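To illustrate the input format used throughout this study, we show a single complete record. The first block contains the structure-token representation of the backbone; no residue identities are included at this stage. The design step must infer an amino acid for every position from geometry alone.
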């Protein structure tokens, strides 16, 4: 009888584990996980609905729909802001990516452990600095020290449209804002690129070195191809941060509403986020609706940028 009972115990345990009834803890955890994921989508949808409804007054009152000469054209109002936002962010990305990739390679493949660990912590700490601190640093300390460089570039490379124009002090222009944005997105791109480079298969690195490749040749033929998608996605995430930056741009760049390519001229450019921060306190009615419409445009741009970054990450090589 005891033999029969012992042989039936595993079957009984199996029935309890795989039966139709789930444990209460598993059910609660599953519900919380699904609910937490849905909250993200609900919050995103709520923001999109809010921006769309609140900007409807500006859309309905725009010149494109009413045909009135007194109405404000949304294209004329939003276009220069989009241009300034994207222009500053792209310039910041061009400056930040080469430096970030170099730092990431140094930490992951050149520096010793005693140096790479504190340097990595320092990069992560730089990402936690508030943007208003970067704005103060850029406006008070950095801008005066960049003036000689701007004058030199304008004098010797003024035939290039980017460096043309007449720089005037204080040079709170698009170039200064782009430099500050580059410093702000540098730790984001560096941290992601560093982690991607560290995931490179060790056997492939050792095989390249065993075949006689130098360290740089190994990095060029193994590490960089492996981490290419990660670097691109990190750059896109940095671009998304630069597009939405507010306080640093507001404190460093003098506002203007033109499509100028002259990055040294003051009062030519403005970003969407900085314009909203500067104008929202005094705006009401249709003026506030226009600001919210620009926020909707920025929301769409950053959403598309992050979606592209996510798609690139999902297609990258798996370690």
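Output of the design step:
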């Amino acid at each position: 009888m005891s033999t029969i009972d012992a042989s039936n115990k595993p079957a009984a345990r199996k029935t309890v584990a795989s039966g139709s009834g789930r444990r209460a803890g598993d059910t609660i955890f599953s519900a919380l996980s699904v609910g937490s994921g849905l909250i993200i989508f609900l919050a995103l949808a709520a923001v999109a609905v809010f921006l769309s409804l609140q900007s409807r007054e500006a859309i309905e009152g725009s010149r494109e729909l009413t045909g009135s000469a007194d109405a404000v054209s949304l294209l004329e109002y939003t276009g220069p802001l989009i241009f300034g936002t994207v222009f500053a962010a792209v310039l910041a990305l061009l400056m930040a990516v080469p430096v970030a990739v170099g730092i990431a390679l140094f930490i992951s493949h050149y520096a010793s452990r005693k140096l790479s660990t504190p340097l990595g912590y320092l990069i992560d700490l730089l990402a936690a600095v508030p943007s208003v601190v970067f704005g103060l640093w850029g406006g008070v300390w950095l801008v005066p020290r960049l003036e000689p460089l701007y004058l030199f570039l304008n004098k010797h490379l003024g035939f290039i449209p980017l460096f043309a124009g007449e720089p005037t002090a204080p040079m709170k222009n698009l170039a200064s804002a782009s430099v500050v944005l580059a410093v702000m997105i540098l730790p984001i791109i560096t941290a992601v690129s560093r982690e991607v480079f560290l995931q490179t298969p060790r056997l492939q690195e050792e095989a390249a070195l065993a075949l006689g490749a130098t360290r740089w040749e190994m990095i060029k033929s193994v590490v960089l191809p492996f981490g290419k998608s990660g670097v691109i996605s990190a750059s896109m995430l940095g671009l998304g941060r630069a597009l939405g930056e507010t306080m640093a741009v507001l404190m460093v760049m003098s506002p203007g509403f033109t499509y100028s390519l002259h990055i040294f001229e003051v009062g030519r450019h403005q970003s969407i986020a900085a314009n909203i921060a500067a104008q929202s306190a005094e705006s009401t009615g249709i003026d506030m609706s226009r600001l919210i419409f620009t926020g909707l445009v920025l929301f769409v741009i950053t959403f598309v940028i992050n979606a592209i970054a996510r798609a690139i990450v999902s297609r990258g090589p798996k370690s």
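Structural context for interpreting the output: The chain has 13 helices and no strands. Residues 12-20 have pLDDT under 50 and may be disordered.
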